[in-house]
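[Meeting: bench + compute handoff]

Bench side (C.D.) handed over the final construct sequence. Compute side (W.E.) agreed to return the predicted structure before the next meeting so the bench team could plan truncations. Sequence as handed over:
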Amino acid sequence: MSKIIAWTTCAVGSLLPGYGRFGKSQSQLISMKYIFGANIKNLVLFIFLMTAYLALHAMVPLQFEKDSSAVYIGKHVSLFQDATKQLSITDIIDHTNLFNESKDDVPNLGIGDVNNWIRFELKNLTDEEKLVVNLSHANIDEVVFYSLKNGVIDSTRFESGTALNKRDYPHQFYLFEIPIKKGEDVICYFKLRSNTQLLVPISIHTEKGLLEILLDTDIFSALFIGLMMSMIFYNIFLYFSTGEKHYIIYVNYIFWVTIAQCAVLGILEPIFSIHNRWVLNRLLTFSGAMSGIGAIYFVKSFLQTAKDAPKLNKLLNIFLIGYFIAIGFLCFGYLIPAYKLVNVVAGGGSIIVLILAFKLSREKYEQTKYFLIAWCVFLVSVVVYVFKDYNLLPYNFFTVRAVQIGSVFEAILLSFALGDKINIYRKEKDESQARELSISLENQLLIREQNVILEDKVEERTRALTASNESLQATLTHLKETQSQLVEAEKMASLGQLTAGVAHEINNPINFVTSNVAPLKRDIKMIWETLEEVEQVALDDNLSSDEKRSRIENFKDEIDLDYLKTEVEFLLKGMSDGANRTAEIVKSLRIFSRVDEDTLKFADINEGLESTMVILNSLVQDGIVVQKKYGALPKIECYAGKLNQVFLNIITNAIYALHDKVKTRDGAKLTLETGVCENASAIYVIIRDNGIGIPDHIRDRIFEPFFTTKDVGEGTGLGMSIAYNTIIKHNGKIEIESVEGEGTSFILIIPIRQNI
């Protein structure tokens, strides 16, 4: 018996969806012939099961007896989704077994790039000879309606961009007439395709009943637009009256909310006569993204998130980026991912804004109460709308238009919130001015009282000092002369320190910042050329994907894009170091009389050397070979900017020492070497050149301030002095090995940790 059931299940399964659309293969027919020929009981059992299956799935015709505005026929239809998008109406009619019965009054077909087929049978029991099928969903990319009566198929097709005057009824809903007399039957099919959430609210009406429904819908749309436009113009007037930027940001938000909801209602097309299919396919998602962007900017402005909630402000920026990415998807034709992304970002952003409003309400409730109420009302309307999509709430006039109703209340409450916020600002300003006036009056009274007291004391002391004035005059004159000398000495000391700290420090950073501009411009120009080449290849429809990829790879190899990236990074880092060092000089001027406030940090010395070499790239002439022997160094605790200045000064002198060899092309060589000292508590940096060397008689003077062997105008004589003091400040030391005519080596020993 189990074998018979298995055979019968296979035979029945071959007729069901998933086992083949258009019948059995030859091998299946042979198998069934064998089964039924072997045992007549199998055939009887098969016929019985097939009859039961067909009876179970047979569609009972929908009997139209009277008009009703709130009756949707979703539970009387059957559904099928064609993922291949290849089946025609004849294929569908021949294979009704593909359909599954709907269990909802308004079927939810979700989001997908498929052809959605809907089938239902209709029987007219009224005296009307013409009925109207109302598909009250305005945002569907393609709608095809088929009616099958007496073996004749009649079809009507609409798609986004079709002018309303070309429809049977010039309305944003999809309306189809069915000529059907009393007692007649008709089989109806819908083929639907949409890149957004697809709900199918289908209802049957007489012409009179239909007009009543459409009148209610249009009156609601007119009221919605009227109320929203009133809020927009009213707040524009307030903006020009008060000059408060909050109003114009609010107007931008409400404008895009109105556009988005008009797109949901499907009334943008008739109002603005939009017939471009490319625009209409993207209008709903785009307007939703723009309303979300407007909402984020309004929230950031109204709640001052940058000041009062910086972390949540950064999170809002992430949602803002999500909206812009969705708009990018729309531009490049990824409609379904864009729609889903907008929904996800809108849901997450709304929750974040609600959390933010609750957080700030604890500190500034007077400024956020209306905002909080408005946002809660809007979120409740959105929840009602979403619950309707998932059949948690009934599909009716209120739930379908919940978002529009919530938007109107939100717009009104947010307008109140803005007015309340401005009033609070003015009240705080008046109170502040009153406090300042009161303090000013108190200060004036105090000053007058103090002046009287001071005048009495001055007069008393003047009389006392007059007697001893002559004896103290000589001492006073001497003190003035001494004071003048001390001031001049202090000025000279300050001038000497400022000169020593600024003359050389500010010269080199500015020079290497400006020297990086030219190569950076060259690199950026190459980047623009790369972008132009990629754009040309991407827009060339005559090239295949492989050819485009090949051309782009060849161009990248041609300009050596990897090296270009590295060079730009080093140039920008060099410019940043120069700017930072200049800022440190300004800071040292401000705190001249105090202890240096620079902070220690852990830095990579190899990275510092490398960035220094990038900065000095323009000074390394042809003929100078730079050899780098970087060891594996731990990060050391140091003043990184000052050490980079040390490297800069020493390497600059080394390059200067190699000029004679560069001119004679005698193999100029600069070597940079790093490593860890044997005791593992310090690292060493060796900067070696094979230049002219340092004569013995001046070797002990190279760290003296203002001492230099360069010609006038080529050096200040402070570079090595600053380098020496910097290394001493790091508890390190500088060793010099030099042979005149053969070269010089500077060995820097720097502790890994600073014991301060």
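W.E. noted at the follow-up: The longest helix spans residues 402-502. C.D. will use this when planning the next construct.
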